[in-house]
TrEMBL record:
<protein>
    <submittedName>
        <fullName>ABC transporter permease</fullName>
    </submittedName>
</protein>
<feature type="domain" description="Leucine-binding protein">
    <location>
        <begin position="25"/>
        <end position="361"/>
    </location>
</feature>
<keyword id="KW-0029">Amino-acid transport</keyword>
<feature type="signal peptide">
    <location>
        <begin position="1"/>
        <end position="22"/>
    </location>
</feature>
<comment type="similarity">
    <text>Belongs to the leucine-binding protein family.</text>
</comment>
<dbReference type="Pfam" id="PF13458">
    <property type="entry name" value="Peripla_BP_6"/>
</dbReference>
<keyword id="KW-0732">Signal</keyword>
<dbReference type="InterPro" id="IPR028082">
    <property type="entry name" value="Peripla_BP_I"/>
</dbReference>
<dbReference type="GO" id="GO:0006865">
    <property type="term" value="P:amino acid transport"/>
</dbReference>
<dbReference type="InterPro" id="IPR028081">
    <property type="entry name" value="Leu-bd"/>
</dbReference>
<keyword id="KW-0813">Transport</keyword>
<dbReference type="InterPro" id="IPR051010">
    <property type="entry name" value="BCAA_transport"/>
</dbReference>
Length: 397
């Protein structure tokens, strides 16, 4: 009788589990697809995730991998509503990309509540693996600390020892200004001031005039996407660079350089976690992406490829979709793909890998399409990112 009851219970459990298994593995790309960051990540990140799924074989644990996507329009409340529906109704297992730090922080908190994996790629704030870290949250590609070390540290050491910041007026901008300021002052520089600029501004004139009157050697652009390209274009009209000040695009990627063109972008110094022409593996990813999309990926799109691939590898290694088991495997497995080689995930969820300091080429130096960067330095991952202990993540105490 006891054996019969146990067998019946086991059969019932299998029947109950069957619908969930039949649903497969579902990954969500939640990002800005129509606004200021549409070129920075947008539909190109969706294509990168699709490419990773195809490269993995389209299934894991005998289950089909499905991709869903939505535009959060840079609104944390809208993003949270979409993510909640994905988690509660549509059985999405993991959400990634998550451009915009305010959005990423909101989804990070929801993922903790729902015990679901999120891998942030597009958002920058180092708080995600700092005071806001959580057991199911991960941060790929870059963060404000790495950008501050790369661009802020190098320019300060090269003599740019006074700074004024144009700062995007939300979580990302604040974190980027803070982390860069700390690097600047640690290297003997001074911050002369800053001004907060609303997201998606069309007129930067009053902010640029304040930067110009500060006489700072470096005007740090703590913004991204179209806000960065528009501020650079308008800075040229005010003669900021011709007047002796230098612009630092603290979060600038290949997409923004392409949008500006080499004539306008030449000489800019920036930090990225990926460039298609670094080595054979980065070229492999870049050239395959180019064939699919007509453009080379930036670090957000390439990072989304890596995050998606790493999640699928972790599910396979865990032998289950269970978030606790998958999170454990994400922190155990090395990250070795066409985005990053020799990467590792820390206890706080931060993926550590080398970053690269680049200078944008002059038009005369570019020998082929998308040949935009001169590599100035490699910033080792251990130097670019906080250690788990330094991050302030309560999981590491």
């Amino acid at each position: 009788m006891k054996s019969a009851l146990l067998a019946a219970a086991a059969m019932s459990a299998l029947l109950l589990a069957a619908p969930a298994s039949a649903q497969g593995v579902k990954i969500g790309i939640l990002n800005d697809q129509s606004g200021v960051y549409a070129d920075y990540g947008g539909k190109w990140s969706v294509e990168a995730a699709r490419m990773a799924i195809e490269d993995f074989g389209g299934e894991v644990l005998g289950q089909k991998v499905e991709l869903v996507t939505a535009d959060h329009q840079n609104k944390p409340d809208l993003a949270t509503s979409i993510a909640r529906r994905w988690y509660d109704v549509e059985n999405v297992d993991m959400i990634t990309e998550l451009t915009t730090s305010s959005v990423a922080l909101a989804i990070h908190e929801l993922s903790k509540e729902k015990k679901k994996i999120d891998i942030v790629v597009g958002a920058a704030t180092s708080r995600l693996t700092g005071d806001a870290c959580q057991p199911y949250g991960f941060h790929w590609a870059y963060d404000t600390r790495a950008l501050g070390v790369g661009t802020g540290g190098s320019l300060t050491k090269a003599g740019g020892d006074s700074w004024f910041f144009l700062t995007a007026d939300y979580a990302f901008g604040y974190a980027l200004e803070k982390d860069t300021s700390e690097i600047v002052t640690a290297n003997g520089g001074k911050v002369l001031g800053s001004v907060r600029v609303p997201l998606n501004s069309s007129d930067f004139s009053s902010f640029l005039l304040q930067a110009q009157s500060s006489k700072a050697k470096i005007v740090g652009l703590a913004n991204a996407g179209l806000d960065t390209t528009n501020s650079i274009k308008q800075a040229s009209e005010f003669g900021i660079v011709s007047g002796g000040q230098k612009l630092a695009g603290l979060l600038m990627t290949l997409a923004e350089v392409n949008g500006l063109g080499l004539q306008a972008a030449q000489g800019l110094v920036l930090t990225e976690g990926y460039y298609w022409d670094i080595n054979d593996r980065t070229r492999n990813l870049g050239e395959r992406f180019l064939k699919r999309t007509g453009r080379m990926p930036n670090m957000i799109q390439a990072g989304t490829y890596s995050a998606t691939l790493s999640y699928l590898k972790a599910v396979k290694a865990a032998g289950t979709k269970d978030p606790d088991a998958v999170a454990k495997k994400l922190k155990e497995l090395p990250v070795d793909d066409d985005f990053a080689q020799g990467g590792k995930v820390l206890e706080n969820g931060r993926m550590v890998h080398d970053m690269y300091l680049f200078e944008v080429k002059k038009p005369s130096e570019s020998k082929k399409p998308w040949d935009y960067y001169k590599q100035l330095a490699v910033v080792p991952g251990e130097k670019a990112f906080f250690t788990a202990k330094e991050s302030g993540c309560p999981l590491t105490k």
